[in-house]
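Annotators were shown the component list below and the corresponding predicted structure, then asked to write short factual statements about the assembly.
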Amino acid sequence: DFKPLVFSGVQPTGNLHLGNYLGAIRKFVALQENNDCIYCVVDLHAITAQLVHEDMPGQIRAIAAAFIASGIDPEKHIVFNQSAVPQHAELAWIFNCVARIGWMNRMTQFKDKAGKDRENASLGLFAYPSLMAADILVYRATHVPVGDDQKQHLELARDIAQKFNNDFMEHIRRTDYGVDTMVGEEHVHAYFPAVEPLIDGPAPRVMSLRDGTKKMSKSDASDLSRINLMDDAEMIAKKIRKAKTDPDALPSEVEGLKGRPEADNLVGIYAALADKTKEEVLQEFGGQQFSVFKPALIDLSVAVLAPITGEMRRLMDDTSHIDGILRKGGERARVRAEKTMKQVREIIGF
Ligand code: ADP
Ligand code: NA
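Structure shown to annotators:
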């Protein structure tokens, strides 16, 4: 079977927020204990929605700094920047020829990000999921920790892998690069694995603090809607105090959070930060008012985030150190990606 390998990426597009941390980065840290992991700053993705960025080098360093400040070990695992490994773009082109336009047309994130003027969105934004599939599969990675918003893109990555495996089945058999594996109940001989999304946990989709029906996002016009990883303790406290809630006390069972999106969101955030389940949080706070719960959430948020923010600032001040980590990570990633691409070119017949 395929060797387990974890891959994920974060775009260098400004304001990293609590949703990115709980939906992605905190899970990256937990997974590194028992897995081989590759964590990528995805700068090629960052130019899909907006071509020109004010300070791309600074944004790239900020994501790498967030990974490391959160506890990722760049010696044991690989931390690098996507464009340093051109094999991602090469495989993405091949996947553009594997994927069907109809598959891409179903992607809801494209519809959200392109907005009304779809004809004027970049071709790159449309093809984004194909590059994302290449990011993962150029390492033949098997597990991808992401937030809930990425679920559809990972299903597409599985479809691309499966179509490549089927279309080139005879070619794959002629090499000894394929792997015998199970897909569902079926035994197959495959070159690319069926990637598993890792979306679980109490906060797979962190919602806006101002509107429990919208996800917390870098692009929300209201800064009060999100907790940024660079916010200081005072700002975190202010945003949680102002977070929208309802007038009722917290329920003692998870069932009681139904129809209360803001309460559900804050309990989920507390649980994720405390490494607890929502059940456990409600055992502690059920029957309490938000006037009791919010101060506890502020204390916990500051206790978890302040050390990360401090370490991020320190790392970002030492640009040559962080650039060195990215350079070494890029070299290691390139060796692994080229090993795959050599085989892929041979399978295709290039
Ligand atoms: P963004 O979605 O903020 O523009 P990225 O696309 O770079 O940023 O996402 C980085 C990771 O953060 C992805 O795994 C994504 O699923 C996760 N993520 C983003 N927003 C949220 C959120 N509100 N809740 C949970 N995870 C999120
Ligand atoms: Na996203």
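Statements collected:
1. Residues 6-202+318-348 form a domain with the Rossmann fold fold (CATH 3.40.50.620).
2. The CA atoms of residues 60 and 114 lie 24 Å apart.
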